[in-house]
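# step 3/5: fold
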Amino acid sequence: MKKLYYRYEIREEYTHAVSSHYMHLRCIPICNSIQQIYGKKVIVTPLDSLTEKKDGQGNILLSCRINGLHTDCSVISEGIAFVDVNAMEKEILNPCYRYVTDHTRPDQAMADFFRAECLPLLSGKQTDWERVHVLMHELHSRFSYVSGMTTVDTTAAEAFALGKGVCQDYAQCLIALCRLADIPARYTAGFLLGEGATHAWVEIFDSGYWYGFDPTHDRVISDDYIKVAHGRDALDCPLEKGVFYGTCGQRQNIRVFVKEYVPAKVREKKNDRNSSICGTAGG
């Protein structure tokens, strides 16, 4: 198990003042058997109203409203996540994760790749967990991480044709391959240990359990991952989406910071010990 401090920041700036700004935020990590969240805090500036509920997939959804004129806004979400991927519990499968969506529908090129490159390697694999390892590795070997080539609206088939994209594209392509293999799968968004942006991976359902696979890094997920939301594809669970009244240019900056959490008392003890050692050495 790991204890992880997370901080998720969004800052938006507008070239002219806007108003009647409505946002939907999925920025609070999910609580479940493998992940418990403590000390969660969300700060939206400016803000007139905020409500919290769960969406149709069970994710925490914040609805925010900013009425007056403003030229910028910011969102900060932070807390402590206790993560233990080995503590999973059995669940009942929602049938929606068996079916394709417009964004995860495999085309003929993906079907040909599945039959020619993946299907021969799946022979002898006893579980869906083993089969997804094959699909993930084969996808990773022919796909390149290149930012700026795709958008939030890019489908799995479009990204696969390009052979390049970002974590969202890796995840949706793997889901499309899972559909061809008749493996229930869902898109997952969240944070990864370190500093950078948000991340996306895939969860597959096998024998009553959801297992996480990260096709961007060609590995299974570990306690370094904090899950925020899941859905059938990326459009089901955007971490931020909004509309406002006004005509302007817009600039958005997103930053994610995750590190292992050390309680204050432990830090104080370490500092005291270091001071004593230094004092002794100096003497």
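# step 4/5: annotate
DSSP finds five helices and 15 strands in the chain.
# step 5/5: archive (pending)
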